[in-house]
Design a protein that fits this description.
Order of helices and strands: EEEEEEEEEE
Structural class: mainly beta
Strand content: over 45%
Shape: globular
Number of helices: 0
Helix content: under 10%
Low-confidence stretches: none
Distance between the termini: 40 Å
């Protein structure tokens, strides 16, 4: 059974940084691409970033490209989302998932960007 657990969210001022982590279990982590999505209040879930199984391919939404980076440590079954130059519009609950799997998500971690 797929289990995903996000952490690292919090309250940060505009221009600040945060690093989110997601630990996966119940599947062969090193063989799966991973993704980050986010959901702001009253809005649908939005793609943020993805990384291939071995980390050699990454992609980002236009709204975060150049500010966010994604990486993974397959020895720790963990995928990271490094967020820099955060803006108020980045405020959302951030979720990780397995690429190609829309049924299993973590509980999410809240990111609030506010002065």
């Amino acid at each position: 059974q797929v289990h995903l657990e996000e952490s690292g969210g919090g309250l940060v001022q505009p221009g600040g940084s945060l690093r989110l982590s997601c630990v996966g279990s119940g599947f062969t982590f090193s063989e799966k691409g991973m993704k980050w999505y986010r959901q702001a209040p009253g809005q649908g879930r939005e793609f943020v970033a993805t990384i291939s199984a071995h980390g050699d391919f990454v992609n980002f939404s236009g709204s975060v490209r150049g500010r966010f980076s994604i990486s993974r440590d397959n020895s720790q079954n963990t995928v990271y989302l490094q967020m820099t130059n955060l803006k108020p519009e980045d405020t959302a609950v951030y979720y990780c998932g397995v690429w190609g799997d829309d049924d299993n998500w973590g509980q999410g971690t809240q990111v609030t960007v506010s002065s």
